[in-house]
What we know:
The structure holds two protein chains of two kinds. Chain A is mostly helical. Chain A has two domains: 1-69, SH3 type barrels; 71-112. Chain A has a two-stranded antiparallel ribbon with strand order 1-2. Chain A is 64% helix and 10% strand. Chains A and B meet through helix 4 of A and strand 9 and helix 9 of B.
Amino acid sequence: QALVDGPCSGVRRQAMPFKCMQLTDFVLKFPHSARQKHVRVAWEKENINEKWAATRWAKKIEAREKKAKMTDFDRYKVMKAKKMRNRIIKHEMKKLLKQASKKGKKLQKAQK
Amino acid sequence: MAGEKKAADKKAAEAKPAEKKGSQKKLREKARKPKKHHASRNPVLARGIGRYSRSAMYARKAMYKRKYTAPETKIEKKKKEKPPATITKPVGGDKNGGSRVVKVRKMPRYYPTEDVPRKLLSHGKKPFSQHKRKLRASITPGTVLILLTGRHRGKRVVFLKQLATGLLLVTGPLAINRVPLRRAHQKFVIATSTKVDINGVRIPKHLTDAYFKKKRLRKPKHQEGEIFDTEKEKYEITEQRKSDQKAVDTQILARIKKVPQLRGYLRSTFSLSNGVYPHKLVF
């Protein structure tokens, strides 16, 4: 079990089994078993909250939460946005395909 | 006590034109007013049993001093207007003597052989009109609802108010999804969390349950062979409904246009597809 403390993230100082947690890339330096005050100071110095929010991991979690909270109206708006986006993509694709097919035809003619 | 207060009031009212005297009496009145009501003059022996009988209490409470009569004039007026006991009605046919004298309140046409036994008291059995109407907390005026049953199933619709019978008054608006001013049942409706601001919208007061109730004609005086013709076959939209619809919808449409994409949302219908589970959806 590990001694865990999250003064800036709302986690009380407690013991927690290692199975309950996943390690991140961030490391803070202070002597082991330091008081919460020192943990907080180190945390804020390194600005862990901002760094964490910038990671892809945190963004994925946020996206998952937002999706779960979507209301009916939100779902409609997402549907419309997706539709529009796909249309634009398709349009560009078709343009490119057309160009490619034209080029292909020109080459064939030239070869003949 | 209260009788004495009333006497004091009357005295004060009469003495008002004389200012000085009136003010003195008013002061006296104010001094008298904070009189507290006496505790019960009937000490309790056991629960529900008092020490003194009714007649003893009458004397103790001095009810002989506290006899009130309501102002007589109104009662006298009402008493004078007794409904007539008989009415003369015209009668048709020749040689009948044009009218008959008919009793207004007739004698009962059946007397049971044994007296009807007294029914046991029942408690809290109210007629439907007096039932308590509940409304889910998620449904407030302006909420967008999804209708689940009926002609307009799957349509998203704006909630206006709850009617006296507990049904919900709802409108499309008509221009958006062809749902008119209509009643919907609370149980067959999903309340979304999307709300339109209906703060100042005035809903005409004549839109009640009676307005929306289905009408059926049933007056075949002589049994005609074509009974079905008299009843409404096709429902026709009355002019009043059209004007009411317009009156409400113009107000609501203005508010809907303010919210981006809301109009398109109301035009769309709700449906389930693969992998969509209503118990997991947040509405």
